[in-house]
Amino acid sequence: MNRHLGRSLFIIAASAALASTPLHAQKDYGPGASDTEIKLGQSTPLSGPASAFGAGAGRAVVGYFDMINEQGGINGRKISFTQLDNAYSAPKAVEQSRKLIEDVGILAEVGTIGTVPNVAIQKYLNSKQVPQLFITAGGRRFNDPKTFPWTVPLYPDFETEGRVIAKYLLNAKPDAKIGVLFQNDDFGRDYVKGLRAGLGVKASQIVAEASYELADPTIDSQIVQLKAAGVDTLIEQSSAKAAAQSIRKAHELNWRPLHIIGGSTASVETVLKPAGLDASKGLVTTQFLKQPGDPAWADDEEMKAYKGFLKKYAPSANPDDYSVLVAYMNVNALTTVLKKCGDELTRENLIRQATSLHGTRMPLMLPGVSISTSPGDYTPFKVLRIAKFDGTSWAISGDPISAD
């Protein structure tokens, strides 16, 4: 054989062998990733009007990554995590996101809490093609793969929640005279939209609506207004502060409607205790996670692991704090997705893996609840559970309810 021809054939064969090597065997890194570390960031309300949510959850997230690093990291890489305070302020949130991307050089911003900060940073992060990953906000605008492909939520969207409550009401109290209290922004309006859609022709049973602004010092007048309208079923989608005020005010007025509150304000520690546990008895909400205070889960292995983790890595975080519980689910999901990325730690692959979860269950999810995402639909939760407050803890009621 001609020596030059033989060499050419060898080169072609070698090239073919390389071409057939699976892509996942080759390392590919985006900004913030290397052989030894993965840089992640988060801005959260450590101060300001939503600090009740942000402080405990923030400590839990930091503690979780400390635990992961102590265990050797993810696929051998340590997590370098930077957490900044956004004070639940839109301008501050944008400022902190810029720092995380331009100064720290993160791979992704993860687990940001609340509608206001996430709306503020959504356009900026998408313009920079940085994952706004597994955010704790339920606005419908966060499931928009065409316009905002880099934004992936990990929280039941408020429209879905409203639809589930409508289904519950149609069965549990079909002749309800409904009054609605909602925060006058996407947080409140999306929920009401879902509620009306779910009620269908029975949406006419909404006999009164009252809204409030996030900066309003009190919502007492709205509660008085709804009571005067003859409402026997009060549905509200409000902030922690407003929810505590409404529960307490209804109790002071000796008004006992069927009172339904949003899942994001169902924290025993930050909402019901300030409102008064006696005043909170009989409340109804939606849930997707096991509750630490529920005796049903006292011997549950996942619950034991959760409480053990907090005791060791975030001892000042209250296990009964709803925001801490949600944060724990969030970081577990984030770890799952990072593991799925393998050695292809790019921003593109992070989004690809996060939007390819099919019936995936995270620790502490209630029976019948799981996460499912696809490239065309980022909505993580399609099914929720109904829970009632017995004066001490939330108790699951009935079967899982689908928003479809």
Short description:
The protein is α/β, with parallel strands linked by helices and 404 residues long.
Explain what you see.
The protein has 404 residues and is α/β, with parallel strands linked by helices. It has 2 domains: 29-156 and 297-373, 3-Layer(aba) Sandwich (Rossmann fold); 159-287 and 387-402, Rossmann fold, CATH 3.40.50.2300. Helix content is 42%, strand content 18%. It contains 13 helices and 14 strands. The strands form 4 sheets. Strands 3-2-4-5-6 form a 5-stranded parallel beta sheet, with helices on both faces. It has a 4-stranded parallel beta sheet with strand order 8-7-9-10, with helices on both faces. The chain has a 3-stranded antiparallel beta sheet with strand order 11-13-14. Helix 3 (90-104) packs across helix 4 (115-127), helix 7 packs across helix 8 (240-252) and helix 8 (240-252) runs parallel beside helix 9 (268-275). It is globular and about 65 Å long. Residues 2-24 have low confidence and may be disordered.
Notable traits:
single chain; 404 residues; alpha/beta; Rossmann fold; five-stranded parallel β-sheet; four-stranded parallel β-sheet; 13 helices; 18% strand; disordered N terminus
